[in-house]
Design goal:
By secondary structure, this protein is an alpha/beta fold. It has helices at residues 40-43, 48-58, 100-106, 125-141, 156-168, 183-191, 203-213, 228-233, 235-243, 260-274, 294-300, 327-336, 346-357, 365-379, 401-409, 429-442; strands at 5-9, 17-18, 34-38, 96-98, 111-115, 148-152, 172-177, 195-199, 219-221, 251-255, 283-289, 340-344, 389-393. The protein has a six-stranded mixed β-sheet with strand order 4-5-13-10-11-12, sandwiched between helices. Strands 8-7-6-9 form a four-stranded parallel β-sheet, sandwiched between helices. It has a three-stranded antiparallel β-sheet with strand order 2-1-3. Strand 10 (251-255), helix 10 (260-274) and strand 11 form a beta-alpha-beta unit. Helix 9 (235-243) packs across helix 10 (260-274) and helix 13 packs across helix 14.
């Protein structure tokens, strides 16, 4: 059975359509964002139970490319792409971790963490980049004049782009804000052979520049305003439901920066509902850092207004964005999912990440934002303690060790309640025994 997909303008008064091989990022008629649309009528001819069986058969299999958490759902993603042009590192299929100890600590026994950072480049951005780079490879094979793929980034997008372009043999260009990303994030595109432009600006400044240079059709834009990315990232929600034996949780909490991930999460869940795989939709909560919170500010006004801001320096550097390009899509998603937007201060996000680390996690600061928001909503009674909650962890904590070192050294701008400093001792047995005796008697380090 053949399936179709195409670009379509999100403006309901316009609705212009474009083929997926078009080098286009906004509607040529009204300048609105585009999204990938699918022939749902054709997809619905295969029943919900049949889709479930097919996805289960493919999940983590060795059949190329269907063992990927993204390409196992190929008909729902890019049905027209040739398998030989798929660029996959078997992304997705990440652990849905039952946070049993942390859940007991906060009085939420049914708490789960979707560990999207347990993937090749260390973040959920791999899910979208496999789709975009595969489509570029298909376009080049079909004769498109693309010479390189470019993105602006706060770190994770550039790492994913560099990884997948290196695997595909396609040149990549990344624009990064100097001094505003972690060393681990900087070295990833450097190591993968990207042209790295390290600029004296913030992400929003990088974004303006990359939009200008990609007006040249030989340079293809890879930021999330390119809705191909959303097609891969939408599998996060689909996979979570699959991992719960095809039942949705009550609440999903996701960190929000440029906001493409928010709309992607909603899109996958709505597609499941439309095709009969899902009976009810969860609530979606977007968690923002207080220092980069334009969506939260708009939420307080009922989304009646939106004002870009100058994002301030935050430990959650990957979401340090003041003018998110996917704002419209995110608002539409939140309205469809009875959504909530909440913010977290620097102290709140750092403490939440550290407290959860004590129970076996190793959280990035953006996951810390989501965990801090969870704690605030629990306290406010906006999340019930009987509900099943999934926090989407967007990146691996190893990409942000500078933040963790400063936290445990106590060198941040606020008290670090859960700091665990190494005990420096002379290499003598009596000194070691004395330290052990003290720790075991006092219960320190915390949690013993």
């Amino acid at each position: 059975m053949s399936y179709r997909a195409w670009f379509q303008c999100i403006n309901p008064e316009c609705g212009a359509v474009y083929p997926l091989h078009s080098i286009i990022y906004q509607c040529e008629k009204c300048a609105s964002l585009l999204e990938v649309q699918h022939d749902v009528q054709a997809l619905s001819r295969r029943g919900a139970a049949a889709w479930m069986r097919l996805f289960e058969e493919r999940y983590k299999s060795n059949e190329w490319p269907y063992g990927s958490g993204v390409w196992g759902k190929k008909e729902w993603i890019l049905p027209g792409i040739a398998n030989e042009n798929v660029v996959s590192l078997y992304e997705g299929g990440t652990n849905l971790f039952w946070a049993e100890r942390f859940g007991k600590m906060i009085g939420l026994p049914d708490l789960w963490i979707k560990l999207c950072g347990n993937t090749h480049s260390g973040s959920f951005k791999d899910l979208g980049m496999t789709v975009l780079v595969s489509q570029v490879k298909q376009m080049i094979a079909d004769g498109a004049p693309i010479k390189a793929v470019a993105c602006a980034s706060t770190g994770d997008t550039s790492a994913a782009l560099a990884t997948y372009c290196a695997a595909a043999g396609i040149p990549s260009i990344v624009l990064l804000p100097r001094g505003k990303i972690s060393l681990a994030q900087l070295i990833q595109p450097v190591a993968n052979g990207s042209l790295v432009l390290y600029l004296d600006t913030d992400f929003d400044g990088c974004m303006k520049l990359v939009q200008e240079i990609t007006k040249d059709p030989t340079l293809y834009l890879a930021n999330s305003m390119n809705s191909l990315r959303v097609e891969g990232q939408k599998t996060v929600g689909i996979e979570i439901v699959q991992q719960f034996d095809w039942e949705a949780p009550d609440v999903m909490i996701i960190p929000g920066g440029n906001l493409g991930n928010v709309s992607a999460l909603g899109k996958g869940l709505l597609m499941m509902k439309d095709l009969g795989l899902l009976a009810k939709l969860p609530r979606i909560v977007v968690a923002q850092a207080e220092k980069a919170n334009p969506l939260y500010r708009s939420y307080l006004q009922g989304f009646e207004t939106f004002e870009p801001i100058q994002a301030q320096k935050t430990l959650a550097s990957a979401i340090q964005i003041g003018n998110p390009v996917s704002f419209q899509k995110a608002v539409r998603t939140l309205k469809q999912f009875n959504g909530i937007v909440e913010q977290a201060s620097e102290e709140e996000l750092a403490d939440a990440a550290a407290m959860a680390d004590r129970t076996g996690m190793f959280n990035c600061p953006h996951t810390g934002v989501a965990l801090a928001v969870l704690l605030k909503l629990l306290k406010a009674g906006k999340i019930d303690k009987s509900e099943r909650v999934v926090v989407i962890s967007t990146a691996h904590g190893l990409k942000f060790i500078e933040m963790k070192v400063k936290y445990h050294e106590g060198t941040l701008d606020f008290p670090t309640r859960h700091a665990n400093r190494p005990v420096e001792l002379p290499a003598r047995l009596d000194a070691v025994k004395e330290a052990l005796d003290k720790a075991l008697k006092t219960g320190s380090p915390e949690g013993w």
